[in-house]
Design brief:
The structure is a homodimer. By secondary structure, chain A is of the alpha+beta class. Chain A contains four helices and twelve strands; from the N terminus they run βαβββαβββααβββββ. In chain A, strands 1, 2, 3, 4, 5, 6, 7, 8, 9, 10 and 12 form an eleven-stranded mixed β-sheet that branches. Chain A is globular. The relative contact order of chain A is 0.20. The interface between A and B is large, with 98 and 98 residues. Strand 11 of chain A pairs antiparallel with strand 10 of chain B, so a sheet runs across the interface.
């Protein structure tokens, strides 16, 4: 696949050695989490709202209340920035200047639109649930017309994107004589033991939970 | 302390039962992580950059390269939105509509400015390091004039803010007869065993790492 083209809005200025425009890298970061941050601007004021996303091909999807300010504003044809960040660790160098973090981030630009077709809406919801808990979509109580009306789904073709990745120890090995510990502290996400609803569940947990994100599972 | 005042930009429209304008709640979320997302707008295009932040009183701080597009744009007097999000779990209800996530998020609005005083710059860097690794700032190789020149620190008085918190199981107990497992899957951050730099460290690790964030430590 070809790289994303470097335009003014997605060209990485600082730390460009950590930057990549490779589509597979951008897509892998987008797929590594279901938490993204959506940026938009209203009346000169920037806003950032965290929400859940998923991806199919070169398109990002997210959904929310049809009455949401973010959804309504973006459905009206305004540009968005969607960022997914994985913080992988703290890098402790011998100087403040070389202290850093290990991370993977993808920043995507585009102009979202509404998914208005019901069959496509359902197909996308199933894709999202298949990442969260494969097989669960078919087990859920189906959506009602009222719920569908209350939910809006946005799709954004990724017009421009860039990723940045840092994944090593401190970069100041030439100062290794300075008498302080140096290295890095990895951080990762752990998925704990599922907690059943207090009112009880009428069926056992027979689908895997969040296998797509590569998180470690904490066993009971 | 008084709540943040509800203005147009920070008033939560959707899920307002999960919203709070309580300063202690906003501050606790800001202090729960060192990863934030900074939003700004240039030429009609929203941008979101992940970076590290810290807080003192009603002010948020972050720093970066003096040549950073984000830093230069915000230092010029443009408004910002800074969001900190903790994803605490996936909430699996009996319907797609009630499926949700547990999270804590704080959205802050203000207009940043540069920290131009060297003594204040150093005092703030020490505050930041005291959260990352208490006692480490004093052990580091001191900043050089060149490094100081290459680093810009921003301070943002939090003019408006709002927090949203969801921290329970599925909200559709009235549908408990539907035959699918229901409950939630907690997610948390784990701090792994520190990895020494390959070139070796001239001193043992004698300061605690990231005690401020309440993350579980993974032991060797």
């Amino acid at each position: 696949m070809s790289d994303f083209v470097r335009h003014d809005r997605n060209r990485v200025r600082r730390g460009h050695k950590r930057a990549t425009y490779d589509r597979d890298t951008v897509y892998a970061i987008l797929d590594s989490h279901f938490l993204c941050h959506v940026g938009f601007e209203m009346d000169g004021q920037p806003h950032i709202i965290p929400t859940s996303h998923w991806r199919e091909g070169n398109r990002l999807y997210w959904h929310g209340s049809s009455a949401s300010r973010m959804i309504r504003h973006l459905a009206a044809g305004n540009p968005a920035c969607v960022t997914v960040t994985q913080l992988d660790g703290l890098v402790l160098a011998r100087s403040a200047f070389s202290t850093s973090v290990n991370y993977r981030s993808a920043v995507c630009y585009g102009t979202p639109g509404l998914v208005e077709d019901d069959a496509e809406f359902d197909r996308q919801m199933k894709l999202f649930f298949d990442r969260l808990a494969p097989g669960r979509w078919e087990q859920l109580r189906p959506m009602t017309d009222q719920e569908r009306k209350a939910t809006s789904m946005l799709v954004m073709e990724i017009d421009d994107a860039a990723a940045k990745v840092r994944a090593t120890g401190p970069g100041d090995g030439e100062e290794a004589d300075w008498p302080v510990w140096a290295g890095h502290v990895p951080l990762h996400t752990v998925q704990s033991v599922p907690v059943p609803a207090p009112e009880g569940a009428r069926a056992p947990l027979d689908h895997p939970l969040m296998p797509a994100y590569g998180w470690r599972a904490e066993t009971a």
